[in-house]
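Fold this: 2-methylcitrate dehydratase PrpD
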Amino acid sequence: MSDRAPVTRSLAAFISGFTPAALPDEVMAYTRKLAKDGIGVLCAATHRSVTAAQGIGDFAEEVAGQGPCTLIGRGRKVDPVTAALANGTLGYAADFEPHHPEAILHPIAVMLPTAIALSEAQNRTGAEALAAIALGCEVTYRVSMAMNPRALYDRGFHPSAIVGSFGSAAASAYLLGLDAEQTVRALGLAGLQTSGLLAWQDDPREDARPFQMGLAARNGVMSAMLAKRGFGAPDRIFDGGHVVLDAYTAVASPAPLIADLGVAWDGVMELAIKPYASVSFLHPALDALVALLEEHALTPGQIAKIGLRFADSGAHCVDDNPLKGHSAQYILPVRAALGRLSFLDLFVDRRESDPEVARLAASAEVIRDHGAFNDAFPEFYMGEIILTLADGRTLSATSKVARGYPEQPLSEADLAQKFDDVTATVCSPVRRAALAEAAEGLYHAPDVSALAAVLAQAPDA
């Protein structure tokens, strides 16, 4: 490789030389926690109500070649590329997986299916699969920060999909044992395939939204597999020529790609674990809403109107979005009226069956802020809830950092309850216990076969 590609080469050298031992203990420990959470959500996405999972699974069964990789919920083995596509779509379907607030990312949804597929194909250990997840998350984060996630959103691009291809390529390169030159080409091929538009917001079925995570996982796996076979590719994707960073924003900088590489692991350690099944932009607001409901012992009938003050830069994603999981006018009323929020609420419209949800949804509005809330976005998804009560009073509360963020982590009891709740929708008690055991024991497992075997089973709840 010539010196004309110092950033690309530096990143590739780091990836090709990566081992699990390179991860600080605290990074591996948190990766294990993130992976278990993601595994529960991935399994829950096989629920029959999740149309994206049903559609992509049917497609995969029809077109896939035979292979060593599990098709989750289908009891079938397929090729790595198809497994990454189908299982990656499941990874984001329930909208309940860990996310990175600042970089506006859902990397676990992409890296977990990538790591499972290629760990099966390459007979990798559980620890190596976990290390691949951490590596992929970190590379995804660095590319997002280099492109500038807010600028991506402003142009209608979906950061998780655009940069997820690079993270998946990095994880795949490690699991396939690519050398530095092959990894340069894997990154170049991933760059050629980058895609992801916020146009999925116009799909009320919510199939297109998770499909983009499936594409990112597929792109990364395919890029690394082709690079290993000697397939040609751009060799300076982050440095010169038609630089991928400049293709998506006008404010990109390559510096975050290699700054403190191997020392800082913010792409892992700053991931938040979701306490709510919805777009993460609404999580601080949901915390504020729950606080008001509990502090004042409010019943749904006491609430006349729900208002949300939110950053103008991100409001387009939550203001009357046709996707239920991304609509403040749906998510906030469901939580206020029903006293809980399930991922199944994203696929079964509660406005059609519950009069209080329908009434509150009709009353709800988003107030677009151009001041402090907007200035804080996307590092903080500040939300102010304003409740107008039937008796004329007005109550308000603001939250800047949601539960589940590293600054306010969920307790071990909360995490265990979330895992049980989501998996109970598709798993019998026996299978749920087996899945928890496989997820918790992944680090010490000689391979990923035990985990894959439980995930392969069809819903039995």
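The chain has a mean pLDDT of 96. The longest helix spans residues 126-147.
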